[in-house]
């Protein structure tokens, strides 16, 4: 039976992969590319819509944002339109394995296989429920990683959690690697940022055990660690584009972070290639990418403003005890309401709040279903004026800016989202050595369904990247190695 593993390496980019390939530092990427096809999918989203929760949903559904309706991370699932790839495969009666995919909460319980939702999920639920210790680890780590505002509580002690995780597949070698990191960190031989890469390495132990046990027809594995490094440490890696250069200490501390992240990604890819059998297609995708954050306003990158205490914010907008708050991707928080009138009042309070003068609105706020996603407006002038007064007209409350917000990150935001991502495909039906050039992220879902020998639903408007497949016959006069050939072939067939 044909199988496919979608390796979701969030926001990796050819801009950095190709130079590392040239240096021989990504051997498993090099092997996979030589065995198959590469492309540069361009995200359909632009501007404020160019975010991973939107772009990945476009990949999963084969629909544009105007159709699938995603506005913010972990918005109520009933407000997201269209079946995703795993739904299509599961509804065809085939086993699926979901691990960490964005916006995959809550897990379906009517499927064959396994389901561990994304690491920003509102709750611990997994399928089967015996996998919940994995999600407890992920949610604890993700939310405690936030410099301020974390609010997550362990449901079991550390030793109990480790024992449960070991029974679920956590390898002794990985535990030894973690212990080695902390030992090196204690002596100053390791950088604190290396810890970020422990999460995907730990998670892959679980994923590999689950994949071998269930042999899903369609499986996903998501990691965000490279995106984190790029957002935080691009300037130390490549100072050239930045108008304000890093000092020697910044380069010393952070200059190796992005390269380290890509090497860990290569290690994970090597384990996937060793795990996959001859009937399995491996697809590596990024959904979107990053580029250096260079503007005249933020010459060395933009600092991130975070809420110090979400409970203080709820008091200021009159929502204490009237909603449930949980952190998602820093610095955003979701507020979930049971009463529509309370939600409307809270939204109005957020929309009217300002700092200093009314034209400087304090919050960005998005709404879907019974949930608000809130964030301090990140385009406020820097550095923030700690003495400025924050005013909440609907409740009559006031607070100093430095009591409400903080800029706590060791470096500013130095990478921002870019539309041109990465795609690599290799498998039993994929041609070797093909460069498809540019395509659309809408093309990924129908192409993966073809690799699984499943029909794409009528609502998918993307094209099958036919030139990637061994059975492709190029149209006369069109280069067979480019996505344009696939599009032309489809048009002619129609």
Describe this structure in words.
Helix 9 packs parallel to helix 12 (257-275). The strands form five sheets. An eight-stranded mixed beta sheet has the order 4-3-5-1-6-18-2-19, with helices on both faces. A four-stranded antiparallel beta sheet has the order 9-10-13-12, covered by helices on one side. A three-stranded antiparallel beta sheet has the order 11-14-15. It contains 17 helices and 19 strands. It has helices at 14-22, 27-35, 52-61, 65-68, 85-91, 132-144, 158-167, 172-186, 198-214, 225-237, 248-254, 257-275, 310-316, 340-352, 401-404, 444-451, 483-493; strands spanning 3-9, 37-42, 96-99, 113-116, 218-223, 280-285, 289-292, 306-307, 324-327, 333-336, 354-355, 363-368, 371-376, 389-392, 397-400, 405-406, 415-418, 423-426, 434-440. It starts with a strand and ends with a helix. Strand 9 and strand 10 (333-336) form a beta hairpin. Helices cover 36% and strands 17% of the residues. By secondary structure, the chain is α/β, with parallel strands linked by helices.
Instruction: Give the strand tally.
Output: 19
From the N-terminal CA to the C-terminal CA, the straight-line distance is 29 Å
- Helix count, per DSSP? 17
The pLDDT mean sits at 92
- The helix content, as a percent range, equals 25-40%
Going by helix content, strand content and strand pairing, the class is alpha/beta
Please identify the oligomeric state: single chain
Largest sheet: 8 strands, mixed
Question: How do the strands and helices of this protein lay out in sequence?
Answer:
Layout: E1 3-9, H1 14-22, H2 27-35, E2 37-42, H3 52-61, H4 65-68, H5 85-91, E3 96-99, E4 113-116, H6 132-144, H7 158-167, H8 172-186, H9 198-214, E5 218-223, H10 225-237, H11 248-254, H12 257-275, E6 280-285, E7 289-292, E8 306-307, H13 310-316, E9 324-327, E10 333-336, H14 340-352, E11 354-355, E12 363-368, E13 371-376, E14 389-392, E15 397-400, H15 401-404, E16 405-406, E17 415-418, E18 423-426, E19 434-440, H16 444-451, H17 483-493
Parallel strand pairs: 1-5, 1-6, 2-19, 3-4, 3-5
Antiparallel strand pairs: 2-18, 6-18, 7-17, 8-16, 9-10, 10-13, 11-14, 12-13, 14-15
Helix pairs in contact: 2-12, 9-12, 10-11, 10-12
């Amino acid at each position: 039976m044909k199988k496919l593993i979608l390796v979701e390496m969030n926001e990796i980019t050819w801009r950095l992969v190709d130079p590392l390939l040239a240096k021989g530092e990504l051997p498993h990427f090099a092997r996979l590319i030589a065995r198959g096809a590469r492309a540069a999918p361009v995200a359909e989203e632009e501007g404020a819509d160019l975010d991973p929760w939107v772009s990945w949903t476009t990949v999963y559904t084969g629909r544009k944002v105007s159709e699938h309706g995603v506005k913010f991370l972990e918005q109520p699932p009933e407000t997201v339109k269209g079946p995703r790839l795993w739904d299509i495969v599961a509804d065809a009666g085939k086993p699926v394995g979901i691990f960490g995919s964005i916006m995959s909460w809550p897990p379906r319980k009517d499927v064959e296989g396994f389901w561990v939702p994304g690491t920003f999920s509102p709750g611990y639920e997994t399928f089967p429920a015996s996998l919940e210790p994995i999600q407890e680890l992920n949610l604890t780590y993700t939310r405690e990683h936030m410099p301020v505002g974390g609010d997550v509580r362990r449901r079991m002690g550390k030793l109990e959690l480790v024992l449960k995780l070991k029974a679920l597949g956590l390898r002794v070698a990985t535990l030894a690697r973690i212990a080695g990191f902390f030992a090196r960190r204690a002596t100053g031989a390791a950088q604190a940022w290396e810890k970020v890469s422990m999460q995907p390495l730990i998670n892959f132990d679980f994923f590999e055990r689950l994949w071998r046990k269930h042999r899903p027809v369609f499986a996903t594995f998501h990691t965000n660690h490279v995106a984190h490094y790029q957002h935080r440490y691009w300037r130390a890696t490549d100072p050239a584009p930045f108008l304000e250069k890093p000092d020697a200490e910044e380069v010393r501390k952070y200059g190796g972070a992005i390269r380290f992240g890509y090497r860990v990604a290569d290690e994970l890819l090597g384990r996937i290639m060793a795990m996959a059998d001859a009937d399995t297609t491996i697809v590596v995708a990024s959904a979107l990418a990053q580029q250096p954050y260079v503007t005249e306003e933020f010459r060395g990158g933009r600092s991130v403003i975070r809420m110090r205490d979400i409970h203080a914010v709820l008091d200021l907008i009159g929502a204490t005890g009237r909603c449930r708050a949980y952190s998602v991707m820093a610095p955003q928080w979701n507020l979930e309401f049971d009463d529509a009138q309370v939600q409307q009042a809270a939204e109005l309070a957020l929309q009217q709040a300002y700092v200093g003068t009314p034209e400087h609105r304090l919050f960005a706020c998005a709404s879907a279903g019974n949930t608000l996603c809130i964030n301090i407006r990140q385009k406020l002038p820097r550095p923030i004026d700690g003495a400025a007064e924050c005013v909440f007209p609907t409740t009559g409350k006031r607070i100093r800016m430095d009591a409400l917000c903080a800029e706590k990150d060791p470096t500013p935001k130095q990478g921002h989202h870019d539309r041109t991502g990465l795609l690599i495909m290799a498998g039993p039906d994929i041609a070797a050595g093909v460069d498809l050039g540019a395509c659309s992220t809408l093309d990924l879902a129908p192409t993966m369904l073809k690799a699984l020998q499943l029909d794409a639903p009528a609502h998918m408007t993307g094209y099958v990247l036919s030139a990637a497949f061994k059975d492709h016959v190029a149209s006369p006069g069109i280069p067979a190695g480019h996505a344009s050939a696939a599009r032309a072939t489809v048009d002619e067939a129609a």
